[in-house]
Amino acid sequence: MPRSVNHAASKARRKKVLERVKGQFGRRKNVWTVAKNADEKGLVYAYRDRKTKKRNFRGLWIQRINAAARINGMSYSALMGKLHASNIEIDRKVLAELAVNQPDAFKALVEKVK
Known about the structure:
Number of strands: 0
CATH topology: c-terminal domain of poly(a) binding protein
CATH class: Mainly Alpha
Distance between the termini: 86 Å
CATH architecture: Orthogonal Bundle
């Protein structure tokens, strides 16, 4: 009796991997064994960088808040300390958005905590 192989499933699995590595360079995009390794590595990077993205955005928000705070005569740490002391619950994402897009509102907030 011949060996039974589920060719449809294995072909679909290979096709899925080759679709994910479509934009890669060289043999990574079309040779199965190389593409499989590239795909696994890419998934590892994707998992890791979902965490890193949060870290990077927090840093960006802090830089934007600091720049806007210094324009209004206050440092970032002093601003955050005074916001906390005056029980103003506003996160860094929203503060950075105010600093960039609505500087008048940000200035009013700084004047309130001064």
